[in-house]
């Protein structure tokens, strides 16, 4: 096995992993603030890509304007989703939440399919397509954008959650909703914010990866699932642990596809998921949870 | 309890309805749909036992369905086994596998269990897709023989209807018996509070795994029946989408209600037929119906419809002051 | 409890009976297309073309004074639905023939139904095993993937590139192609040095391509439908792979060039002639039908008539031929279809016979190459 092959697998894996990380962080934010697993997270990723396409091609906006617009509209969708699907739920049992977020994802996908079409579309890369060579392996400029933007977002996240009042309020909701409500935190608003932040992040993930992978109305499904795997590996943290989880997942997937078998590539993510859930459900870095009886 | 309200009478009425319905119809495309409805009902009941009674979420039940179908299919097509031998063998294998994997998985709760079963279901699907030499891969497995019994070969819609629905009725009887027995009560206690049940002496862990295995066995039998009546199976029918459909059937019909599972299965099998005219809009209608059901009728149709009816006709004595 | 039960049952009854059957009418043709779902790029143009040509035939007075009625059902690419809907077409709509389905998987599922109910089926999908071995009631209009593979291998053999790497998608189309690629390798002196797959929704194939780069492959053959091959083309460019890249007819559309961008330059694939209709020599027997089809489709749907829509067009026209020759029952239609000779369609020139229900020969495919964002014919 040559070094440059391994390096190539790893590098490709890192950039895919970064996307999983971003999506995983989105899952974690909502889960931490509300205890809900948002199965529709993948659809926000899809919306990011498709909306950017819309703003670019139909409205002919330049890239630097299309992206914020796309993120803005996705965030609005996140807002609507929480209001229309999550808040009205009278019996928020896990099963009902699972179903309603799945229903939400079906709905968003269906609307996307009708508004746009079922085709795959390409988005121009941010800064050209010239491959960059690194010690025998190559990556594209877009890969650098992906890694860079992921790190920036993680940094912003850290700042928000640890150094701003509203971020700390959201963390308080995660620790103990009732106590948070008692000290005056508007828990309902925190729930709404968490959805909006997650949808914004998800759409950013979708936008930065779309030039590489192209976009269509149904890219959200698999990406969402794999992002969730990343979150589980990272122990549902909204910071570095999930990023590591995503990167680990991406690299293992890539190595598996290259060294073992390309057909079973998707199975790798889910096997890892099962192993983690069975052996160490708190993730690689989390602390074990205790349950009050 | 008055004679008419005993559960057995209800069941016999239902059975009579099922057995006599084809005479009302007299054949046609609808018979084909009803055969599917039977398979879906069996699957919904299986999932309901796990979800509605024991309170454990599974997003991967299509996997057990597929395992039953493929085991039966491959054994009868490639190895020329007798279908009536392949079916029970498949059921035993699937049940055993579910039992074994149930132990580690059912330690998990809520969302984590949902994701674990999701992962399991997808892995099973990928295996179906990739083991091309064995299963025919994505193009599917064709030429599965029809079942025959006492000289009758089940290869027409009417015959398949009676075959499948006989199994469905047996499953229902089994489920109703289970639900009203000591085991059923133990299950519900685990659902309400696992810790309390344990304190009372219920071996919660073993019970959960047993129900999981039973549920898997029913799915496997349904899968085998499906394989023999369709004579063609493909991995696409056993993926995540179908697991979601099953979940929807159970929730829409009503968790913890066997007849609810039938209702849910009936509705969701008929829905594509009713929505056919809507063409591209049908996926949206599906999502909307699902959302509305969960928000406004969380108990499912079996509780929601009578409630609605009661609200509309207004109970005497409950007036707005 | 009792009232509730009765209510429940009436609910179910009304649901069931609301989809009761309805009666039959003129010359009814059933169609099963994957208009939505993963094979929509096949089903949508097929439905559009079928509708277009049926409308035209009807406007011109129908066939022998009778109007044609096309009943189209969307299978969403699902084989199970295809079987159900085939039964519906036969039992409820009482069609005299069925065209489609769009994919090989669905077709294999529907074949037993057609054979059992004795209704002619003209499939629009490529799998060679649909008509090999020949089945009495089953025909197809799409070119066999065996022919496509042969075209590529022929070219490779001529240019002495005999070590090939396969990269196929893990769905019905890809696995069928992979079967053919492996089966015919020996015949053309090819050695398969690497055999990899990718998932239909995969977004990064650099792992597989890196493996291929390290192998002794002299050419890469990719068998799939959009967007996978476009991603592969881009990945190959990124990795600096200089090996010639061949694709399947699954991406013989402008869409592929659009998606792959600059990475598409120099890629070759076998295609139906419709893609290069305007540069065909006038002596080509199909040119007239091809140009008419392309123009018509453009007028009707404001989009380019492509290779896939052509399959449905051919199917309807073949049926029309059978109707013209006096057939109006399922069995008669089947017999007349078998007697089709020299029909210049979109997919090729059709010659059915009792041994051959695929009807096309090597001339059905031409090798094309992407040059300057457009297709050119490779000599």
Compose a concise summary of this entry:
The complex is a heterotrimer of chains A (293), B (321) and C (379). By secondary structure, chain A is mainly alpha-helical.
Could you characterize the architecture of this molecule?
The complex is a heterotrimer of chains A (293), B (321) and C (379). Chain A is mostly helical and 293 residues long. Chain A is built from 11 helices and 2 strands, in the order ααααββααααααα. In chain A, strands 1-2 form a two-stranded antiparallel sheet. Chain A is globular, with a radius of gyration of 19 Å. Chain B is globular, with a radius of gyration of 20 Å. Chain B has helices spanning 7-25, 29-53, 61-77, 83-105, 110-130, 132-135, 157-179, 182-192, 194-199, 204-230, 240-253, 258-275, 282-296, 301-313, and strands spanning 141-142, 148-149, 152-153, 232-233. Chain B has 321 residues and is an all-alpha fold. Chain B has one domain (3-239). The model of chain B is unreliable at 317-321 (pLDDT under 50). In chain B, 74% of the residues lie in helices and 2% in strands. Chain C has 2 domains: 27-143 and 289-361, Response regulator (Rossmann fold, 3-Layer(aba) Sandwich); 146-271, 3-Layer(aba) Sandwich (Rossmann fold). Chain C contains 12 helices and 14 strands. Chain C has helices at residues 2-17, 40-59, 79-91, 104-117, 145-158, 172-184, 206-213, 228-238, 254-260, 287-301, 307-324, 330-338; strands spanning 27-33, 68-74, 97-99, 121-123, 138-140, 163-169, 191-198, 219-223, 245-246, 268-271, 343-344, 349-350, 366-371, 374-377. Chain C is globular, with a radius of gyration of 22 Å. Classes of the chains: A mainly alpha (293), B mainly alpha (321), C alpha/beta (379). The interface between B and C is large, with 49 and 45 residues.
* CATH architectural designation of chain A: Orthogonal Bundle
Which topology of the largest domain in chain C does CATH recognise? Rossmann fold
Fourth CATH level, the homologous superfamily of the largest domain in chain C: Response regulator
- In angstroms, what separates the terminal alpha carbons of chain C? 79 Å
Proportion of β residues of chain C?
A: 15-25%
Strand order within the widest beta sheet of chain C = 2-1-3-4-5
What is the CATH topology descriptor of chain A? ABC transporter involved in vitamin B12 uptake, BtuC
Share of helix of chain A, binned: over 70%
């Amino acid at each position: 096995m040559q070094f440059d092959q391994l390096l190539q697998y790893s590098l490709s894996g890192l950039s895919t992993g970064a996307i999983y990380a971003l999506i995983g962080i989105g899952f974690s934010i909502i889960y931490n603030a509300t205890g809900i697993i948002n199965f529709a997270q993948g659809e926000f990723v899809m919306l990011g890509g498709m909306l950017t396409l819309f703003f670019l091609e139909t409205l002919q906006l330049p890239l630097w304007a299309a992206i914020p617009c796309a993120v803005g509209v996705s965030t609005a969708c996140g807002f609507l989703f929480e209001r229309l699907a999550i808040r009205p739920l009278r019996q928020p049992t896990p099963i009902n939440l699972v179903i309603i977020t799945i229903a939400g994802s079906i709905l968003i996908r269906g609307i996307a399919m009708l508004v746009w079409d079922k085709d795959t579309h390409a988005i121009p890369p941010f800064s050209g397509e010239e491959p960059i060579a690194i010690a025998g392996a190559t990556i594209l400029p877009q890969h650098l954008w992906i890694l860079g933007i992921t790190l920036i977002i993680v940094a912003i996240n850290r700042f928000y959650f640890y150094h701003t009042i509203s971020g700390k309020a959201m963390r308080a909701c995660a620790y103990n909703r009732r106590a948070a409500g008692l000290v005056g935190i508007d828990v309902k608003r925190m729930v709404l914010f968490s959805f909006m932040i997650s949808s914004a992040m998800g759409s950013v993930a979708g936008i930065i990866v779309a030039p590489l992978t192209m976009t269509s109305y149904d890219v959200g499904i698999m990406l969402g699932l794999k992002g969730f795997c990343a979150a589980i590996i990272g122990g549902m943290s909204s910071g570095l642990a999930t990023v590591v989880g995503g990167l680990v997942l991406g690299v293992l997937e890539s190595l598996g596809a290259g060294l073992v078998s390309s057909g079973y590539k998707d199975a790798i993510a889910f096997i890892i998921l099962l192993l983690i859930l069975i052996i160490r459900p708190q993730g690689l870095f989390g602390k074990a949870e205790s349950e009050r009886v | 309890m008055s004679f008419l309200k005993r559960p057995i009478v209800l069941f016999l009425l239902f059975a009579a309805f099922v057995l006599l319905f084809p005479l009302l119809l007299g054949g046609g495309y609808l018979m084909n749909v009803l055969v599917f409805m039977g398979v879906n009902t069996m699957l919904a009941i299986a999932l309901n036992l796990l979800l509605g009674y024991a309170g454990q979420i599974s997003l991967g039940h299509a996997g057990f369905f597929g395992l039953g179908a493929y085991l039966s299919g491959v054994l009868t097509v490639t190895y020329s086994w007798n279908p009536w031998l392949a079916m029970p063998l498949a059921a035993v294998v699937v049940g055993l596998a579910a039992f074994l994997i149930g132990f580690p998985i059912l330690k998990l709760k809520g969302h984590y269990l949902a994701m674990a079963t999701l992962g399991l279901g997808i892995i099973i699907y990928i295996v179906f897709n990739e083991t091309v030499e064995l299963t025919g891969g994505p193009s599917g497995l064709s030429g599965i023989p029809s079942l025959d019994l006492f000289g009758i070969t089940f290869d027409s819609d009417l015959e398949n209807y009676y075959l499948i629905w006989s199994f469905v009725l047996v499953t229902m009887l089994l489920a109703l018996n289970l639900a009203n027995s000591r085991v059923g009560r133990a299950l519900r206690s685990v659902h309400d509070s696992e810790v309390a049940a344990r304190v009372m002496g219920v071996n919660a862990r073993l019970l959960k795994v047993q129900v999981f295995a039973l549920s898997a066995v029913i799915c496997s039998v349904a899968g085998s029946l499906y394989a023999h009546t369709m004579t063609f199976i493909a991995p696409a029918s056993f993926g995540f989408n179908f697991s979601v459909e099953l979940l929807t059937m159970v929730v829409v019909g009503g968790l913890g209600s066997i007849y609810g599972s039938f209702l849910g299965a009936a509705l969701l099998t008929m829905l594509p037929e009713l929505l056919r005219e809507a063409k591209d809009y049908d996926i949206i209608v599906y999502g909307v119906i699902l959302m509305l059901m969960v928000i406004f009728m969380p108990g499912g149709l079996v509780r929601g419809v009578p409630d609605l009816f009661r609200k509309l006709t207004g109970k005497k004595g409950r007036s707005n002051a | 409890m009792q009232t509730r039960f009765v209510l429940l049952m009436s609910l179910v009854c009304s649901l069931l009976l609301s989809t009761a059957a309805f009666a039959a009418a003129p010359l009814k043709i059933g169609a099963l297309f994957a208009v939505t779902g993963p094979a929509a790029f096949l089903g949508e143009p097929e439905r559009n073309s079928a509708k277009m040509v049926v409308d035209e035939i009807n406007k011109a007075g129908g066939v022998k004074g009778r109007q044609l009625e096309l009943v189209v059902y969307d299978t969403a690419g699902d084989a199970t639905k295809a079987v159900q809907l085939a039964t519906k077409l036969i039992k409820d709509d009482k069609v005299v023939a069925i065209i489609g389905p769009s994919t090989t998987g669905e077709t294999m599922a529907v074949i037993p139904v057609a054979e059992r109910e004795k209704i002619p089926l003209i499939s629009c999908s490529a799998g060679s095993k649909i008509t090999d071995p020949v089945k009495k009631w089953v025909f197809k209009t799409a070119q066999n993937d065996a022919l496509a593979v042969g075209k590529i291998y022929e070219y490779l053999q001529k240019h002495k590139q005999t070590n090939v790497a396969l990269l196929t998608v893990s769905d019905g189309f890809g696995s069928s192609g992979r079967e053919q690629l492996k089966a015919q390798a020996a015949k053309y002196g090819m050695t398969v040095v690497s055999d990899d797959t990718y998932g239909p929704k995969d977004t990064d194939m650099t792992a597989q391509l890196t493996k291929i780069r390290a192998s002794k492959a002299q050419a890469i053959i990719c068998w799939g439908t959009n967007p996978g091959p476009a991603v592969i083309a881009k990945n190959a460019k990124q990795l600096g792979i200089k090996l010639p890249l061949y694709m399947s007819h699954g991406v013989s559309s402008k869409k592929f060039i659009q998606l792959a961008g600059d990475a598409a330059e120099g890629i070759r694939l076998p295609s139906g002639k419709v893609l290069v209709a305007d540069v065909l020599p006038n002596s080509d027997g199909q040119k007239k039908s091809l140009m008419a089809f392309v123009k018509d489709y453009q007028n009707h749907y404001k989009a380019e008539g492509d290779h896939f829509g052509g399959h449905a067009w051919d199917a309807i026209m073949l049926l029309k031929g059978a109707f013209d020759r006096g057939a109006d029952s399922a069995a008669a239609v089947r017999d007349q279809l078998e007697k089709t000779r020299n029909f210049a369609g979109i997919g090729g020139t059709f010659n059915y016979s009792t041994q051959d229900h695929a009807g096309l020969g090597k001339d059905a495919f031409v090798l094309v190459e992407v040059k300057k964002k457009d297709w050119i014919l490779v000599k």
